[in-house]
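From the shared-data thread, chain only:
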Amino acid sequence: MDFFKSAYQGRPPWDIGRPQKEFVELVRRGEVSGSVLDIGCGTGENALLFAGEGHEVWGIDTASQAIQKAREKAAERGLPVHFLVLDALHLTSLNRKFDTATDSGLFHTLSDEDRPVFVNNLAAILNPAGKYFMLCFSDREPAGYGPRRITEREIRESFRDGWSINYIRPAIFESHTRAEGSRAWLSSISKSDG
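Structure, as tokens:
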């Protein structure tokens, strides 16, 4: 994770200065509901979008510089978001639950060993029938740029037990270094009631 901490000494490719269009569309369609946890929130653009829509929002990231920038943006915009420095593998330390969790570019950074730890933490902080929206790099994106590619099958396998997959659809992950963006998956995954 040191890469992510040092990335914010400059401007990382994923820090586009506005919310990802895929998340703007989720809000427009009314898919984001209730309290929201933005996991790997970076400098907070997606979290601030949700707060601007009236949601109670928390944003976490391991990069303290990113969280500081997010807090400054929240203060400038007058939006009440709780931004914390926290590892996504320790979500249970928040000691609270959310109706919605969002992830723009975190899942594809997790190792095979860390994925089940993350999924278990996610299950612990989501309310029954809570939803997780994840935007990650797709295996349809050619090699040579950016993070590890994720297959649809990997997503389905990671969320096989205790989850219902509402959809996994092709999407675009925007960056300020590539005008066309990168091929991605947008997933909507619900925690099972049982």
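The chain has a mean pLDDT of 90.
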